[in-house]
Write a structure and sequence with these properties.
InterPro entries: FAD/NAD-bd_sf, FAD/NAD-binding_dom, SQRD. The chain is α/β, with parallel strands linked by helices and 379 residues long. It contains ten helices and 22 strands. α6 links the parallel β11 and β12.
Length: 379
């Protein structure tokens, strides 16, 4: 009897899973023993890490987009029809158009979304680079900036956890190049008692910020933004004035997850090793959608996807499990416009930060170009 694999979400994680399954299940796809269907929200695929470079004019918008149908293997049944309701008991997904898709195996790759509207005044008073519109507006604001107080405000949870550090260091060099650094004050806020959730990154960033004259304030959980007074206030009672506010807005998972009763805040309770939705043996979770307490980053999604591909293919072909996910994550960190570093870790190995170098910066730029091979599952 034919098996149907249904993938909800067309971002990096879902795309790698779909393409990887096509490679491993070629025989079954040709015979009709397996079919793979993806439900996406739009017909384009965006390289999200490229948004970091847009405000500084370091990446052109056209470089960040491809038609999703061209990124996907042609054997995948792809529909631009967002999931509206997921019924785990009936093993079916209903879409915005009213269509119903049944499945034998379901892959939830619904990702995350920014929620600036969840903080009073943030949407009106702040800039961000976590979506294209925000990155464009921030680019314009930086080009018009002539000096003053800049607050880089980080909220949790958020994806791409090293991006705020990267942005802050790139901002420092951007202002230097424009001759505005000595006319500007940069203050970086973080919601816990150190500069980053990963302790080694925090210990590395502290001395770097100090050397560059970047101020910081920890235990800063944003309560509100006042666009008229140009102040940002924390729940701890601190108030910071700004001339330019750059925020990393809090994130939530997809609304279809919470509305379907699959996870609070859009995050699905996920087995840290098997990537099953807790309590299910036919629903897998990958990428930002999981509630696994590790970085919500592209590399995490990629490593999870690789494990999921092996396991789903093994279940279909051999009726057995292949391997477990070990928590692996690897993130390049831009430390300016000409140097970079990286951090990697897994469930057993704590994070380490490599010494910054020009070579690592070029590795990051090279990966920017190789992303599309990664999305196709070829890297």
């Amino acid at each position: 009897m034919s098996k149907t694999i249904l993938i909800v979400g067309g971002g990096l994680a879902g795309t790698i899973v779909a393409n990887g399954l096509c490679r491993q299940l070629g025989t079954q796809l040709r015979s009709g023993a397996v079919s793979i269907t993806m439900l996406g929200t739009c017909d384009t695929h965006m390289y999200q890490p490229g948004l970091l470079y847009v405000p500084f004019g370091r990446m052109r918008e056209h470089e960040m987009f491809r038609e999703q149908s061209r990124v996907l293997d042609r054997r995948i049944n792809f529909f631009v029809d967002p999931a509206k309701a997921i019924d785990a008991e009936k093993k079916q997904v209903t879409t915005d158009s009213g269509r119903t898709f049944r499945y034998d195996y379901l892959v939830l790759a619904t990702g995350s979304r920014i929620m600036p509207q969840s903080v009073p005044g943030m949407q009106e008073g702040a800039h961000w680079f976590y979506d294209l519109e925000g990155a464009r507006k921030l680019r314009d604001a930086l080009n018009a900036f002539q000096g003053g107080k800049i607050v880089v405000n980080i909220n949790a949870p958020h994806k791409c956890p090293v991006a705020p550090v990267e942005f802050t260091l790139m901002l420092h060099e951007f202002l230097e190049a424009k001759g505005l650094r000595d006319k500007s004050e940069i203050t970086y806020t973080y919601p816990i008692g150190r500069l980053h959730s990963l302790e080694p990154v925090a210990h590395w960033a502290g001395p770097v910020f100090e050397q560059l004259g970047i101020k910081s304030e920890v235990f800063f959980n944003t309560e509100k933004v006042d666009p008229q007074a140009k102040t940002i206030t924390s729940m701890e009672g601190s108030e910071l004035p700004y001339d330019l506010l750059v925020t990393i807005p809090p994130h939530e998972g997809a609304s279809v997850i919470s509305e379907s009763g699959l996870g609070k805040g859009g995050w699905v309770p996920t087995n840290t090793k098997t990537l099953h939705r807790e309590g299910s043996d036919d629903i897998f979770v990958v990428g930002d959608t999981t509630n696994i307490p590790i970085s919500k980053a592209g590399s995490t999604a990629h490593f999870e996807a690789d494990v999921l591909i092996d396991n789903l293919a093994s279940l279909v072909q051999e009726g057995r499990w292949a391997r477990e996910y070990d928590g692996k994550a690897f993130c390049f960190i831009e430390t300016g416009f000409s140097t970079g570093t990286y951090v990697w870790f897994n469930y057993k190995t704590p994070p380490t930060v490599a010494p910054p170098s020009q070579m690592l910066h070029w590795f990051k730029l090279a990966y920017n170009r190789l992303y599309w091979l990664s999305a196709r599952g070829l890297l």
